Amino acid sequence: MSQTLTSIQALENGNHFDNVTFSKGEEEGPKVTFRNNSFYIVSALLFQEDKVLLVSEAKHDGKWYLPAGKVKYQESLKNAFKRELLEESSYKGEPDHLLSINAGPGGWFRFNFIGHQTGGHLKTPAEADKDTLEARWFPCSEIFNGDLNYRAQDMFEVIKDGILWNQQNGALQREKSIILENSFNSFCLRPLAFDLNGANVQLAIHHETGKVPLIRMGMYYQKVVTDFFQKSGIQVQVLGILAVEHSPREDSWDGYCLNVICKLDRENSTGMSNFKWIDLDSNLSSAINKIIGTQSYVWAFK
InterPro entries, from UniProt (predicted)? Predict the structure, then answer.
């Protein structure tokens, strides 16, 4: 199996891609360092049947919000989820799925996870601290009826995404994590363009390097990816984020790479020969078809 196919297999196994070199003609973006031009936040969405866990925030006059907070120096996104959940609600927990990514100016990104509790207890008013006054389970109907004294409306979209995810009876849940550990010194994209028309799924790789392209990040990542392929006469439909690669480094590099899943529009593509199209084996083909068929990718930059 070629290096690229090994990398795709590694992605399905919860590992990272082994090529972090930018495509020919692509320059790296500005170096990304912790709290200089990167600012990451995580939020934790937990359900208990039809109830959602919210915390009363001390810094916002006791208003209710999802457990959430800033990622610390050299902290992974998963560990930030677990720490914030414990600090703000007194529950121990694990993230199950990355629901969505929100973005703002200055390298501000929020990673919204749905997860489950593994221990701990519900924080009571007697345990109030400088961050939160208490935690409580609220019925979804009470959250959306307008009576809740909430801090910001953006949590409603996250909760709705979580409800939809649960209603699919796990159809959107991937067996493996979609946060992969790999270090980058800038924001970048790895477009995974698949052709679903043949007996086996085909993947586009660079015709010179033999690797999946790596390109500079843009706020509108869908346009960046479509423009990249259009330069070669290839039309793709950008579906979402298949995986996020991130791992903070001791030298303060704090970039990440979004693995963007795309579907080839063969009928309107004229530059097929500008890329190599390699066959995935039957197992990988089945996995990719299932991911696309069940929309098992992240809803990003909502």
Answer: NUDIX_hydrolase-like_dom_sf, NUDIX_hydrolase_dom
How far, in Å, CA of 7 to CA of 20, rounded? 11
What is the distance between the alpha carbons of residues 278 and 265, in angstroms, rounded to a whole number? 16
**Token representation of residue 231:** 């330069």
In the chain, the number of structural domains is 2
Of the three residues 169, 200, 223, the one that is the final residue of a domain is: 169
Angstrom distance (rounded) from CA 206 to CA 22: 11
pLDDT digits 0-9 by tens, 54-105? 999 999 999 999 999 999 988 999 999 999 999 999 999 999 888 889 887 7
**Same structural domain, 187 and 292:** yes
Residues 46 and 154 in one domain: yes
pLDDT tens for residues 112-136?
Answer: 999 999 999 999 999 999 999 999 9
Lowest mean pLDDT among 30-34, 221-225, 283-287: 30-34
CATH code, 289: 3.90.79
Residue numbers of the domain that contains 87: 39-169
> How far is the CA of 251 from the CAs of 34, 236, 247, 254, 255, in angstroms?
10, 37, 12, 9, 12
